[in-house]
Amino acid sequence: MAAGRAPGLFYEKQLWGSGADVVVGMDEVGRGAWAGPLTIAAVVIPRDRRVYGIRDSKQVTELKREKLFDRIQGWCDSVGVGHASHEECDDLGMSDAQRLAGQRAIESLGVDPHTVLIDGSWDFLDGHRTQLIVKGDATCLSIAAASMIAKVTRDRIMRSQAESFPGFDFERNKGYPCPRHKVALMGYGATSIHRRTWAFMDRVPWSGQRREPASSQGILFRESAPSS
Fold first, then answer.
1. Given phi > 0 = left and psi -120 to 50 = alpha, else beta, which region is 197?
2. pLDDT tens-place values along the chain, 228 residues long
């Protein structure tokens, strides 16, 4: 897997130069998965120290991500991770689940952000000053570091679930669509960690049809989230 060009500090330096003391990078993983949580990481990186090897998590092998994880955690000034469980993804819909996980990540940082750098073109974080960066995980060091933290954290959760659900290959596919995952669903039906409102559930033999998201019936946010 190609390592890709290293992300830089262009956006952080602009903000630091304008007086922003706490610049946060944020990225998510798990939005397109069929099973497991949506996970968002938020990090504050130091101005005067670097860790080499940080890239968009998609450009780095799983083995290398694992090797870098503790180093990145120790390098960052602050790290926060927030999850929206598979039930919350169902009950709230993905947009509100992403807002909830993002807020949980910010709350777990332990610092008050001046600006949050978000990968992509959608501002899902309410109540904070944000800057959207398309392909930010490939160009912005704070976001790239957050992408590594989020990916490793969620991958570990899914690997820990693999023993409970043999045949689904969660240790490899991490709950994302793939041929083996599809075959397992058709043969065994959905597990207790699958997102049951998604369209793929229409073809799962035992379910027959999707259930309606509970949020459409006025259900409020759950406060619980899976442990990282």
1. alpha
2. 445 589 999 999 999 999 999 999 999 999 999 999 999 999 999 999 989 999 999 999 999 999 999 999 999 999 999 999 999 999 999 999 999 999 999 999 999 999 999 999 999 999 999 999 999 999 999 999 999 999 999 999 999 999 999 999 999 999 999 999 999 998 998 999 999 998 888 878 654 334 444 433 322 223 333 333
Count of beta carbons in the 10 Å neighbourhood of residue 20: 16
Contact 13, 115 (CB under 8 A): no
User: If you search the block for the tokens 């944020």, which residue do you land on?
Assistant: 26
Given this structure, which CATH class describes domain 10-163? alpha beta
Q: List the one residue out of 66, 62, 82, 51 whose CA is nearest residue 145.
A: 51
Q: What's the rounded Cα separation, in Å, for the pair 90 and 35?
A: 11
Burial class (CB in 10 A: 0-12, 13-18, 19+), 95: exposed
In the structure encoding, which two tokens stand for residue 7, read together? Answer: 């992300």
